[in-house]
Every structure is written in structure tokens, then in C-alpha cells.
Amino acid sequence: MLVADSMLGKLARYLRMLGHNVTYIPSDRDDSSIIEEYRDYIILTRDKMLNGRASNSILIKSYMPIDQLREVFPKLPPPEHRPWELCPFCSTELERVPEKTDLPEYVSRIAKEIFVCRKCGRYYWKGTQSANFAKMMEGIGIEIQ
Ligand SMILES: [Zn+2]
Predict the structure, then answer these.
(1) What is the pLDDT of residue 100?
(2) Which residues crowd ion ligand 1, with CB under 5 Å?
């Protein structure tokens, strides 16, 4: 399991889209409580102090999220899930929406397969955004379907 500090929100979303379960640390937490609570996790951090104190952490040096992903992805264990199985915003497993439900009309019109996050209520489907993401991943050597 991965946990990302508050400076790595976009990296966390990318990792979830690739199938990694990522917990997010709110910015008001102090290092000691982070180390205590997440001792069984891999901690991804931009914070050199935290990295120095936690042996289970990986220091992220890059600034841009895509560079951060390129930097850290090869160092991680294989994702627990397949790409697109987790909600990018809250890491909850997505459910396929059965047909003929009360979806927003614009969604049911454009997509065949629709997924919902039961926790935050967001809908997902394959479209331009997912194609762009797959292309972006290909650009840094990560193959997804
Ligand atoms: Zn969600």
C-alpha cells in the first residue's frame, strides 16, 4: 500500500489510474504521526526531513507530476489493481453501472461502459481523457490498456 504526502496530489491520482491503491496524507499532519500511522506503507514524499526519518519512504525529487511518475513507478511493487479499476480521487474500487439506471443523460448518451465510485459519486467512462492518459503513459514507457 502506498501513501502520498500532501504535495503529491496529482501523482497520487496518476498512480490510482494505473491501479495503485494510494492513501493521501492531509497537510496538517506532523511527521511523527505520519511515521507512526503509516509504518506498513510505502510513503511517497517530497519532504527531505520526513524521508530522512522514515526508512519506508521514497523521496520524490521531480517537480512536475508526470516526471514524478516516471521517477517513482519503476521503484514500486506491481499495482494491486488493473488500470482504471480505482477512483483517481479517492482510491475506491469502481463499480460498473448496469444499464438503464438513472445516469445523467449526457453520460448515457456518449458511453457504453460506465463506472461509478460509490464513495465520492463520480462517474467514469472510456473516452478522450482516458485515451490521452494512455498516450501520456506510453510517452514515459508505461503500457496500459
Ligand atoms: Zn471516488
Answers:
(1) 59
(2) 87, 89-90, 92, 117, 119-120
